[in-house]
Amino acid sequence: MTAYLALCLLFLAITVKSDPTRCDAPSMEALVVEVDYMFRYSFVTNLSYDAQNNTLSKRFVSAKAYKRGTIQNRRYDLLYFHENETLQAFRLDLDTKHCSTKEISKEPRPLFGIPEHAKFGGESIHRDSGMYRESGILVNKWWANTERSHYIGFWTQDCLPVYETYEYTRIVYSYVELGIWDPNVFVPPLEKCFFP
What we know:
Layout: H1 2-15, E1 28-36, E2 41-50, E3 55-67, E4 70-74, E5 76-83, E6 86-93, E7 99-105, E8 119-126, E9 137-145, E10 150-156, E11 161-166, E12 169-178, H2 190-194
Antiparallel strand pairs: 1-2, 1-12, 2-3, 3-4, 3-5, 5-6, 6-7, 8-9, 9-10, 10-11, 11-12
């Protein structure tokens, strides 16, 4: 009887699955489409994320802002990095060559990934008309109320992003690859900013 009870408890422990815990995004590169329906802009960027140094680079392929019935195309390089325990942003306008830096936060914080206080919301199979059309991919849904807005994100079980939304902003990730192929994307082109 004891062996039977132990076998039943073992079977129950194997079949009952606990919710996944929040994970940190690994170093990766991706093509990202971001659309903001409130401020009326859309971006297509090459995103590179260095998890070890908590540095994020966005190289804009296309950026469109819709203002007063006109479309304004802009191209930028953005680099977010930590320097002396503060979060800095570096922005180079590729059209005007104007460069600017800005302190974003006094405290170090993760630049990319599932928000720290996000809660697990379930699993689903994600299918779209592109990469996952045939088989789909198993994703975890995460949600949180952040200081910015309400967050919903779909991430693979390996902690790679698929889709995120913040209030009026939708972000879709494609061609996600692990690792960094060109570490120079994290080096600000200082000669363009300070030496005309």
